[in-house]
Description:
Blueprint: E1 8-10, H1 15-23, E2 32-34, H2 35-39, H3 45-56, E3 61-63, H4 70-80, E4 92-94, H5 96-106
Parallel strand pairs: 3-4
Antiparallel strand pairs: 1-2
Amino acid sequence: SCYGGQIQGRLVLDEDEKVRAKKLGITDFSKKYNIDDMVKDEPTFKDYAIEIFQFIKDCDLAGFNSNKFDIPLLAEELLRSEIDFDLSKIKTVDELIFLDLMQDLLL
Length: 107
């Protein structure tokens, strides 16, 4: 969806998945679901925050463009969940830097 738009989704299921979905009470396979429908009754980030923190607390983190998006988002969500995640205590590697270096070498 675009900025300001409404996220929608539709189930795309094979026959085995339709059988399982019917057992869960899903009968309208052409229904468009909005974001509230899709997350209704699902746990929030805060429900898993302590477990996530325990998993990553002694780790260095790496990813592609992660220093500008993933890691700040993770830190913010942990802080919103009242868990003090101190970015100054971990090392991060943003693999985007390697793409930038390769492009510089190829020019």
